[in-house]
Amino acid sequence: MIVVPQINYIIYMLPLNFPLPVLKKFNKIVETFLWSGKRPSLNRTKLYAAKEDGGLGMPRVDWYQYAFSLNQLSKIYGADSQTPVWVSIERELTEPFSIHAFITQTEGEIPFNSPLLRFARETWRTSHQIVGSKPLFTRRSSLWNNKLLVGRKTLFWRTWTEAGIIYTEDVLEGDKFISFEQMMTKYHIPKTDFWKYLQLRSCLLSMQKRTPLINQTLVQEMIQANQLTKKTASSIFKINNKLNIFQKIWGHFMVEVVYGKE
After folding, report:
1. Residue 179: which domain range?
2. For the chain, how many structural domains are there in total?
3. Which of 2, 31, 113, 236 is 20 to 30 A distant from 77 in Cα terms?
4. Distance, CA of 48 to CA of 241 (rounded, Å)
């Protein structure tokens, strides 16, 4: 597979939205060549599964694209002395949000219509879809430009953001919403913002009834566990691959149990 490393090199060096149909077409060409245009003798799940999991270990370049991008995103968790220059540049672009807060948002404009930031946010969402994880309501998800709605509009109060209220965990004490007095003391919020406090609390309580609050998603755990290592992309790809394979196998198993298929 001499071609795959060459494609991966381009994808790795250009953290942009590489046309997904092109990557899927490449996978299709490889599959056609492998089976000589005949009917496959095994399904794709086993074809792309790692050898230690009983598969053939065929590479999927579309998954490598997201693994490489997550490798880049892992650098935002490092200390300032360890992060590359581009991190500080993108931090300025996403102000008043941190890069991490920005990529967890589901709404809001892309600063300067940056293709890098657009792809970073898209990668964040797609990677969660691959591993079957929901990133919407965690302690480290952004309060603003997310699924918290008031009058069918997403919340974003700049003065609160500049005061340091950015993540869900910023307004919680344990699992409970902090009082308005605590918020005024901690973030110097004026008394006139009490109505906003009630709106935000109502939104969060409503969200918590629909979606349980978790500390962090599986993707966040993967990034933090593999940050700033030489084999980050490879580790993330293997974890994504393994999780996706297990989910498919489990899905087939459930169909067999429910419908009695062998």
Report:
1. 149-210
2. 2
3. 113
4. 8
